[in-house]
Hints:
- The chain has helices at residues 3-23, 27-38, 40-44, 54-57, 72-86, 99-120, 126-133, 135-163.
- It is an all-alpha fold.
Amino acid sequence: MTARGWRGVAALLIVALLAAACASGRTADTRRGITRAAASPLRDIGLIRPEIPPLLANLQYPYSTASLASGCPAVAYQIGELDAILGPESFQPGPDRNIWDRGGDYAESGTVAAAQSAANGLIPFRSWVRLISGASAAEREALRAFANGQQRRTFLRGYGASLGCPDVVPPPAPAPVPRPARNDAPTRGTQH
């Protein structure tokens, strides 16, 4: 198959994945993912820089208590600000998803991954272009800022717990309900 034929197949695959993801009812998430993937070449050449929220940009040392007002309300307020920027933590339970929602998630992630792969292939010598344009350094800076924000939130949760503040540490996820073991396999010595 020629290069032109492969491009046609790739375009058809992307359209099919887009249609499947859009049919899942998660079009807004898919649209954001596709938009982010399409902007990838612009980020690679440094025209679009990662946005760092001011709270994270001004965070120099995540373990400082100097700027923290005393008391539980100040700790809870700062945790709330960080939760708004960073989203839920990995141990916080998410929504229950049925098999149709999970299927839609799968179609969406496949669509966004295909678009990201196609966009990444537009710039030859991508790693060198990112290095020269400063896009790699800007991305590392943004990742470092978000990591500092996560460390600050974790520190504040521990600090608030040590002060005896209620509700600074979310409750743990409920334990999974054990399923009864199935004993369908015949055992030795039994006759059927």
